[in-house]
Specification:
Elements (H helix, E strand, L loop, with lengths): L1 H9 L3 H14 L13 E6 L5 E4 L2 E5 L3 E8 L3 E7 L4 E3 L2 E5 L4 E9 L9 E8 L2 E8 L9 E7 L2 H8 L26 H6 L3 E6 L13 H17 L2 E11 L1 H12 L6 E5 L9
Parallel strand pairs: 1-8, 11-12, 11-13, 13-14
Antiparallel strand pairs: 1-3, 2-4, 4-7, 5-8, 6-7, 9-10, 10-12
Helix pairs in contact: 1-2
């Protein structure tokens, strides 16, 4: 800007050059231009339904502004769509750039859980004398596109059930006595996999609580990491969107995952777990 101002002061045709400088400086200004140069107040309303709601039910705003709403289905339901106002739904947040008065209409649907165990493919990996069985769900893939991966680690109930001969308890949502822990299968339910397609890696570790078993050891997490690295190399896994979740002792594994394979995971989601020392 300084050379331009100097030119304006030193030019002989000051009037013309000053006008030129003013136009150029105005065009180059960093000041933001309003979305609507003549904003007017409008009201954005929402329609009601018995299956969920949009919060707030009404917002007053000026045209050109951006406002957000929370789309909240009732328990046992999920959001199918939100129409009106030409906005965008991201998770539970619906964002609108206001252009005129309009009405948001949500569409909710009852969530019906499906048995998705058959969508997982059983595989094994061996390290020394130890062979790990794991199950992998692969989303419907599009060419030249990468997908997230979720490492889902089951808890002690599933491990003990496997040790007692129950087939693939980590893929069963109900193990009796109201025990249902869809740590892996929850991500593959239709309304989730359609909205958020991702690989789901579900290792199975039979648990007998013997002193020499590797469940509470860094050995297992490194073995999981070997599988992940292979999927990055031969599949369509996005290395920047790898997540780990677990329940009970699986949550404990989740807690210390970054200490074992630092930098691998973008986020952790442990439930009902405590810290265990990976070196003991």
């Amino acid at each position: 800007m300084l050379p331009l101002l100097t030119l304006c002061r030193s030019a002989s045709s000051k009037a013309l050059l000053l006008l030129t400088c003013f136009v150029l400086l105005t065009a180059c200004s960093d000041a933001p231009n309003p979305t609507d140069p003549n904003p007017t107040p409008v009201v954005i309303r929402t329609s009601t339904t018995d299956l969920g709601l949009i919060d707030p039910t009404e917002q007053r705003a000026m045209t050109g502004e951006t406002v957000s709403f929370q789309v909240l289905p009732n328990k046992g339901h999920h959001t199918v769509s939100v129409t009106g106002c030409d906005g965008e739904l991201d998770g539970i947040t619906f964002t609108v750039t206001v252009t005129e008065a309009c009405t948001l209409t949500p569409r909710f649907r009852e969530t019906v859980r499906e048995d998705v165990a058959d969508l997982f493919v059983e595989q094994t990996i061996t390290e020394g004398d130890y062979t790990l069985t794991y199950h992998l769900y692969t989303p419907e893939l599009e060419a030249n596109k990468q997908y997230p991966l979720i490492l889902a680690i089951h808890g002690t109930v599933e491990g003990a059930s496997a040790a007692q001969g129950v087939e693939n308890p980590h893929l069963v949502d109900d193990l009796g006595e109201d025990i249902g822990r869809p740590v892996a299968t929850g991500w593959v339910q239709p309304h989730i996999r359609d909205a958020y397609p991702a690989y789901v890696l579900a290792p199975l570790v039979p648990t007998t609580f013997a002193p020499d078993e590797p469940w509470a050891d860094a050995f297992l997490m490194r073995l999981f990491d070997r599988i992940i690295q292979t999927l990055i190399e031969v599949g369509q896994v996005d290395p920047d969107r790898i997540y780990v979740t677990g329940h009970s002792i699986g949550a404990s594994q989740t807690w210390f995952a970054p200490a074992i394979v630092g930098g691998r995971f973008a986020a952790l989601l442990p439930t009902s777990g405590v810290w265990i020392d990976p070196e003991n």
